[in-house]
Hints:
Elements: H1 8-13, H2 15-24, H3 29-38, H4 40-61, E1 64-68, E2 72-78, E3 82-90, H5 100-109, E4 115-123, H6 128-137, E5 141-143, H7 146-156
Antiparallel strand pairs: 1-2, 1-5, 2-3, 3-4
Amino acid sequence: MKYKRLTKEQLEALHQEFANFLASQSIDKKEWDELKANKPEVAEQELDVFSDLIWEGVLTNAKFLEHFSKNHIFLFHCQEQFIQSIVLKSVIAEVDFMTKEGLQWLSDNMFTETVEMHIGKKDYDQERNLAIFDLISQGAILSDGQLYIQINSILQS
């Protein structure tokens, strides 16, 4: 596998897409049930191929990622050849960006000495989608990019 197998919940949510995937390989429900019962390794391979196809589509369309932790926020803008980042860090240990209060504190203190801000740009050191998948595996989530765009536009002005 290139990525990782979708969870049971993810596969259930993509039930129709999986049925279409099997149909594109001329596998109907009866044949799928037989594969699961008699050739589980082949059924597993089909799940892996389908998972990789879904991941590839999601990662290809990924534009922004966010990763929040107690004292850091990592914002990523995924370009074709490189990734840009904005990292926000609270120098006050008690601030928790995982809470509503912590985010309000950030909003109130964004451009003070209590918030460190680092901007970066890095060429992918591997295939773009694999690099994005690695970030997701480390806890980043797909985002609409509003926070990145907001902060970046303030920095650019």
